[in-house]
Every structure is written in C-alpha cells, then in structure tokens.
C-alpha cells in the first residue's frame, strides 16, 4: 500500500469535538451527535466528512493508549462566520500529506493505521509532522460495508 502525496492549502472546518483517548474512545458518540446537526452548517463546501485527530506534541514518540487528544467530526466550509449552536471551527494548516486509501469496513481501519505507523513511516523518507491527521469520507464511504473506501491523510515532512 503506497500513498500519494498532496500539499493542501489551509482548510476551514466546522464541526464538533471531544477529548478522548484510544482507551476511552468516544468516536461513535461524537458522530452520533454531529450527523443530525451537520445540515445546520449553511456555508459548507461539499458533503465529504472529515474525521480529524489533533494530537499533542510527542504523542507518537511516547505512545500510550491512555493519552488524550482531540477528535473532530467536521465538514469543510467557505467561512467561519455564523457557526451553528454547539459547533466550533478548526483550521487545517497548509502542508504535505501522505494519503492512503483504506478499503473495507471502518472496523478494519486499525490494520491500515498499524501498517502506516509501524511499516510505511519507518521505512520511508518521511516523518510525521505536527499537524492534524484526518480521514476523508466521501461518496465511496459506506461505514461497515466491505466495499467502503476512505482516505487517510497523514501529515508528513522529509526526514532530517
């Protein structure tokens, strides 16, 4: 599984967030709360959904499944004006990403992430960059369907 590389320009996201750890995973609750209210975002760009993780510095250097990070359920917007109630904004900064395609049910995603972090990154000429990670779920995303596809965007920079 080889990624493609894309440099994104700044993206404006509107959504909801929760503090969680991998041990205390609140992803389902976050999306259950966000999905009914996403239509209140009037300045959305598309129907693609962003599942974003904002990790603290050194999160991966001293990895523990108990360390908390921010998890976002969001969509891209044209501006951050007039946010609906219970919505917040997040800016994805400009930067280089390695983009992997995860095929299969969402529940098999950890295998894809394990490959990325334990095999691909250590053997590549890239290292993680301290920017948000995200999964982009578009028309091909079908949750637990074996034909589902989503893009996993990992922030990277050339190794020193």
Q: If you had to describe this structure to a student in words, what would you say it looks like?
A:
This protein has 2 helices and 9 strands. Strands 1, 2, 3, 4, 5, 6, 7, 8 and 9 form a 9-stranded antiparallel beta sheet that branches. It starts with a strand and ends with a strand. It has a single domain, classed as Multidrug-efflux Transporter 1 Regulator Bmrr, Chain A (Alpha-Beta Barrel). It is an alpha+beta fold.
Could you provide a short overview of the structure?
The chain is of the alpha+beta class and 160 residues long. The chain is built from two helices and nine strands.
Overview features:
160 residues; Multidrug-efflux Transporter 1 Regulator Bmrr, Chain A; 9-stranded antiparallel beta sheet; 2 helices; globular
Shape: globular
The overall pLDDT, averaged over residues, is 93
Low-confidence residue ranges: none
Estimate the strand proportion. 35-45%
Question: Could you state the CATH homologous superfamily?
Answer: Regulatory factor, effector binding domain
CATH architecture, by name, is Alpha-Beta Barrel
Number of strands: 9
Query: Percent helix among the residues?
Result: 10-25%
Helix segment count?
2
* Overall CATH class: Alpha Beta
Order of helices and strands: EEHEEEEHEEE
CATH topology group: Multidrug-efflux Transporter 1 Regulator Bmrr, Chain A
Integer count of domains: 1
**CA-based gyration radius:** 15 Å
What kind of sheet is the major sheet? Answer: 9 strands, antiparallel
Report, as a whole number of angstroms, the end-to-end distance.
24 Å
Structural class determined from secondary elements: alpha+beta
């Amino acid at each position: 599984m080889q990624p493609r590389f894309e440099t994104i320009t700044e993206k404006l996201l509107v959504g909801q967030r929760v503090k969680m750890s991998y041990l205390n995973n609140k992803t389902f609750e976050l999306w259950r709360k966000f999905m009914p209210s996403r239509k209140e975002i009037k300045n959305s760009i598309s129907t693609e959904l962003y599942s974003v993780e904002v990790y603290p510095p050194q999160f991966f250097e001293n990895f523990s499944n108990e360390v908390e990070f921010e998890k976002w359920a969001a969509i891209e917007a044209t501006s951050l004006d007039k946010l609906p109630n219970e919505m917040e904004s997040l800016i994805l900064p400009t930067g280089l990403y390695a983009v992997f395609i995860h095929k299969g049910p969402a529940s098999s995603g950890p295998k894809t992430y394990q490959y990325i972090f334990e095999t691909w990154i250590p053997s590549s000429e890239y290292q993680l960059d301290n920017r948000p990670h995200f999964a982009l779920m578009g028309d091909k995303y079908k949750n637990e369907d074996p034909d589902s596809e989503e893009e996993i965007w990992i922030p990277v920079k050339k190794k020193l």
